[in-house]
């Protein structure tokens, strides 16, 4: 199971990209070299490759931008060669091409305006209308082929990655809570190792950001229909927001556990065990977020009926015993408040989902 998952996540995308790039390059070269018989046929496959691997919408935008860059570059070259001596024309074409390339419509490929103008001048084809037209045609043809291959042959969609990230993030946050629970139960001194685990989660791509990327990848995508049947990115939006919010609260839990571990006088054994059980219960609740709402009728039923009530009960138990916690009351109180926020977030997610599942 795990081996096939690795092949799917790593091998699959590379194989698809390699196959699409090969198809696009061969088709673009054949059309340019054999059909329109261009003397610069290498430009077509070269351009086509830039259209592969990005979203369908992005490849269409890139195609228009590539054609615009070439047209601007040959125009700059022609204008300078007509009005200036060779050396001055070369310098002016680079300067003007660089300035024109900084226009927003050419970003991020603006540098190619100057490069195109420079190459046209160096090849001595700035005043050769046939060569100029072939250059524009080759780039346009390559861009068109690249867009078509990218859009029709397994077009890239990133909503699946966002869905997988939901599972990964819920498991990661749950594991962090279990590590915190173990530290509390063992009474060991926590210095900074748990902050490292927290930082790894914080610096990773946010789930909501991944959903936005996935949503954008479905624009103009023929694979959008399959996702539309189950609700698209909207069905994952609530759990994504919940995971991003709980991660912030987990930072407060980490600080609280660190403060608790630094206290010289140990609190009651029973209270420390209750705090550890509380963190374990919240971890179990977070694990339930890994169920795919597109495949499960009631994905959070077990969380709402079993895991979350237990976490809330234990939170009340720990809060009731705070008076006997001595100098550690402040640290435990911080943990309780943060867990309260996590529980409220998870309850809101499960409550909002319940009407749609009945």
SSE diagram, text form:
Elements: H1 2-35, H2 43-49, H3 56-83, H4 86-101, H5 111-122, H6 129-152, H7 159-186, H8 193-203, H9 207-217, H10 224-230, H11 237-261, H12 269-287, H13 301-320, H14 329-357
Helix pairs in contact: 1-2, 1-6, 2-6, 3-4, 3-5, 3-6, 4-5, 7-8, 7-9, 7-11, 7-12, 8-11, 11-14, 12-13, 12-14, 13-14
Describe this structure in words.
- By secondary structure, the chain is mostly helical.
- It folds into 2 domains: 2-152, no CATH class; 159-357, Up-down Bundle (Methane Monooxygenase Hydroxylase, Chain G, domain 1), CATH 1.20.58.
- It is built from 14 helices and no strands.
- The protein is elongated.
- The two termini are 32 Å apart.
Notable traits:
single chain, 358 residues, mainly alpha, 76% helix, 0% strand
Radius of gyration (Å): 29 Å
Mean pLDDT across residues: 87
CATH class of the largest domain: Mainly Alpha
Give the % helix.
Answer: over 70%
Could you tell me the CATH topology label of the largest domain. Methane Monooxygenase Hydroxylase, Chain G, domain 1
Strand content: under 5%
Order of helices and strands: HHHHHHHHHHHHHH
Number of strands: 0
Count the helices. How many? 14
Distance between the termini: 32 Å
For the record, the CATH architecture of the largest domain stands as Up-down Bundle
Number of domains: 2
Q: Biggest sheet, in brief? A: none
Global shape: elongated
The unreliable regions are: 1-8
InterPro entries: Memb_transporter_dom
Membrane topology: Multi-pass membrane protein
Domain Integral membrane bound transporter: 24-149
Subcellular location: Membrane
């Amino acid at each position: 199971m795990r081996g096939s998952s690795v092949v799917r996540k790593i091998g699959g995308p590379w194989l698809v990209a390699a196959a699409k790039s090969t198809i696009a390059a061969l088709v673009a070269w054949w059309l340019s070299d054999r059909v329109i018989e261009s003397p610069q046929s290498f430009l077509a496959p070269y351009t086509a490759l830039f259209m592969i691997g990005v979203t369908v919408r992005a490849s269409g935008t890139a195609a228009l931008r590539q054609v615009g860059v070439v047209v601007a570059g040959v125009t700059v070259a022609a204008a300078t060669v007509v009005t200036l001596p060779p050396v001055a024309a070369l310098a002016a074409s680079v300067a003007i091409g660089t300035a024109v390339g900084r226009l927003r419509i050419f970003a991020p490929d603006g540098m190619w305006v100057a490069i195109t103008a420079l190459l046209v001048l160096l090849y001595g084809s700035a005043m050769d209308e046939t060569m100029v037209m072939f250059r524009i045609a080759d780039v346009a043809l390559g861009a068109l082929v690249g867009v078509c291959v990218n859009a029709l042959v397994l077009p890239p969609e990133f909503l699946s990655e966002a869905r997988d990230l939901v599972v990964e993030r819920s498991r990661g946050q749950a594991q962090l809570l279990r590590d915190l629970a173990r530290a509390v139960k063992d009474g060991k001194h926590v210095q900074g190792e748990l902050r490292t685990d927290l930082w790894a989660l914080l610096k990773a791509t946010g789930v909501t950001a991944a959903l936005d990327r996935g949503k954008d990848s479905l624009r103009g995508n023929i694979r959008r229909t399959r996702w539309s049947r189950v609700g698209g990115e909207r069905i994952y939006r609530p759990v994504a927001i919940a995971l991003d919010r709980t991660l912030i609260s987990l930072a407060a839990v980490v600080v609280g556990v660190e403060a608790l571990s630094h206290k010289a006088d140990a609190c009651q054994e029973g209270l420390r065990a209750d705090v550890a059980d509380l963190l374990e219960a919240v971890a179990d609740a977070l694990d339930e977020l890994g169920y795919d709402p597109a495949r499960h009728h009631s994905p959070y039923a077990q969380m709402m009926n079993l895991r979350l009530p237990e976490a809330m009960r234990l939170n009340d138990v720990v809060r009731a015993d705070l008076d006997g916690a001595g100098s550690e009351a402040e640290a435990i109180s911080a943990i309780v408040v943060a867990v309260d926020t996590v529980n409220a977030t998870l309850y809101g997610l499960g409550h909002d989902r319940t009407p749609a599942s009945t």
